Amino acid sequence: MITVIGLDGGPLPRRAAAALSAAVCVAGAARHLEAAAGHIADGAERVPIGDLGAALDAVVAAGGPAAVLASGDPGFFGVLRSLRTRGADPAVVPAATSVATAFARIGLPWDDAVVVSAHGRSDSGRGVRRALAAALAHPKAAVLTAPGRAGPDAFLPELLRAGRRVHVAQRLGTDDEDVVTLAPGQEVPQRTWADPNVVLAVDPDRALAPAMAWMPGHQGAPPDWALPAESFEHRASLITKPEVRALALARLAPRPGTVVWDVGAGSGSVAVECARFGARAVAFERAPDDCERIRANARAHGVAVEVHQGEAAANLDAAAARLAPDAAFIGGGDDAVASAVLARRPERVVVALASLDRVRPLHDMLAAAGYAPDGTQMQASRLSGLPNGSLRLAAANPVTLLWGTRTPSA
Ligand SMILES: C[S@@+](CC[C@H](N)C(=O)[O-])C[C@H]1O[C@@H](n2cnc3c(N)ncnc32)[C@H](O)[C@@H]1O
């Protein structure tokens, strides 16, 4: 029998203490073996978890009762999954997860929080990027960090810049527990953070969702999308029409953990809709009054959109250096702008074109950059009423939508 025991700094439950003292083999991180030393039988084999796989193999192969010590709730981003995949059928004695403890320390409910883990895939930076994107798109987030490149410093600059109040909860449940609170917009302090730690990020204006959520985190696809033009403030004609936006959204695939750029954003309707799907939305627009309108549209829809004012091509590099895009919608700008977007290598690109002259060059540009180009012309005619009460079709201007998905090797 294997017992997995969660530790949170509190006293060990009786079941856990009994399982530990009976175990002939106990695996755990060095700090956990030390914390539970008084309960482990003298002759028991102690297996420090450096290489998790090897340690769990040793536990599974132990010739008697064994125990695994883990942090918090072993069933929540913990060792339980790895043990189960080895065919073990362990008993579990959980403790409070570090996320619950961290929110308890700042006195906030967390049933409306999105919880993301930055563990894994850190070689490519993908783990950090998607965790950061999801945290930025949600008013309340907890990030399970990992030592090194996925530590608090990978998250703090963007979270603080986005107006979040950030708490770094270090070594919870130990004698040197420390929760450091950073104010929105403040500089990131030059210091080292003690491991392990959890980063909480809270939008101070939305620390309490208006009502209790029924499901933690992002609530899934919005109740309606491809919203009518009237749902957005816009300058006449400078809005992607709902029919075109619907297909663009389908091809951009906005969702939690992704970053979507809206380049030449106009009203920002695409950015706002992507944010409603849970993506981190970033809009680029030249005119200051359009930028104001994008911000107003984001506010009206209760979502976060980062707005960059100025010539798009000049702003893309700096934005990409902070958080590279997964998908980009190009609703405005010339071929130089499109080429600058492609240079940032988003996986998906969608371009809306009114001018036929640009279709061929952009199609070829997508192909040359390693994307599989595709496209369609969209000509919608909406139902409209006539004064006599009969229906007519009101034609909207045709638009060519081009898109491309980057082939994996490109
Ligand atoms: C693999 S996850 C395990 C999560 C664990 N099952 C739980 O319920 O807290 C490891 C991460 O949990 C967080 N963590 C675990 N113990 C912690 C503690 N005592 N204080 C702060 N964060 C902790 C850190 O983000 C750490 O990198």
Automatic annotation (TrEMBL):
Q: Which Pfam families match?
A: TP_methylase (PF00590)
Provide the Tetrapyrrole methylase domain boundaries: 12-181
Any one biological process term the GO annotation gives:
methylation
Q: Which superkingdom is the protein from?
A: Bacteria
Recorded metabolic or biological pathway in which this protein acts? Cofactor biosynthesis; adenosylcobalamin biosynthesis
Recorded GO molecular functions are: protein methyltransferase activity
Q: Return the InterPro entries for the record.
A: 4pyrrol_Mease, 4pyrrol_Methylase_sf, 4pyrrole_Mease_sub1, 4pyrrole_Mease_sub2, CbiE, Cbl_synth_CobL, Cbl_synth_MTase_CbiT, Cobalamin_biosynth_MTase
Q: Which CDD domains is this protein grouped with?
A: Precorrin-6Y-MT (cd11644)
> What are the record keywords, sorted?
Cobalamin biosynthesis, Lipoprotein, Methyltransferase, S-adenosyl-L-methionine, Transferase
* Record's protein name: Lipoprotein
